[in-house]
Amino acid sequence: MTSLTTPPTTGDDVVLLTVPADGGYLGVLRTATAGLAARLHFALDEIEDLRIAVDEACAMLLAIATRDAELDCRFAVTDDALTVEVSVTTTRGARLPAESSFAWKVLTALTTSATATATGDRATIVLLTRRAAEV
Q1: pTM for this prediction
Q2: pLDDT attached to residue 12
Q3: Which neighbouring-strand residues pair with 83?
Q4: In Å, what is the CA distance from 82 to each residue of 13, 41, 91, 95, 105?
Q5: Which residues contact 117 (CB under 8 A, 6 or more apart)?
Q6: C-alpha–C-alpha distance, residues 126 and 97, integer Å
Q7: Which in 11, 45, 55, 93 has the greatest CB count within 10 A?
Q8: Per DSSP, what are the bridge partners of residue 76?
Q9: CB atoms inside a 10 Å sphere around CB 98
Q10: How many beta carbons lie within 10 A of that of residue 103, not counting itself?
């Protein structure tokens, strides 16, 4: 497995999953996302938003992934947040959609923050979602 960009911090629970970079395996990542968000007591609509965001981020990465690539996914769980970092090897000259694209609008609307990096032959999208304050 390839080392992902964000090292775990003390107190984080970290789950690492690697699946083939194929749309047929995205259900595994969506299910893991929902399970971890439920563990944090996210509301049902927050869980669904995060599942959609993970799906959208993976779709962006699949579009630029090399043949036979793997999606590396790192989930970091803290007391009030879930960070999902998805990374894949990319084809030469591949680019992620612009931050002004509809796909990025979806990610930023559904999460607390979304960032992306593309360096060398690897692209990574990091999604952070904080649990809504309880009323």
Answers
A1: 0.87
A2: 64
A3: 76, 128
A4: 10, 11, 29, 26, 20
A5: 5, 123, 124
A6: 14
A7: 55
A8: 14, 83
A9: 8
A10: 17
pLDDT tens digits, one per residue of 22-74: 999 999 999 999 999 998 899 999 999 999 999 999 999 999 999 999 999 99
Listed by start position, the domains of the chain span 13-130
How many angstroms separate the Cα of 71 from the Cα of each of 18, 58, 67?
Answer: 6, 8, 12
Contact residues for 29 (Cβ-Cβ < 8 A; gap 6+): 17, 19, 54, 55, 58, 71, 73, 86
Query: CA 93, 95, 98: angle at the middle one, nearest 5?
Result: 150
Q: Percent of the chain at pLDDT above 70?
A: 89
CB-CB contact of 73 with 32 (8 Å): yes
CB 86 within 8 A of CB 118: no
How far apart CA 63 and CA 36 sit, in angstroms, is: 26
pLDDT per residue as tens digits for the range 73-105:
999 999 889 999 999 999 888 888 888 889 899
Under CATH, to which class is 13-130 assigned? Answer: alpha beta
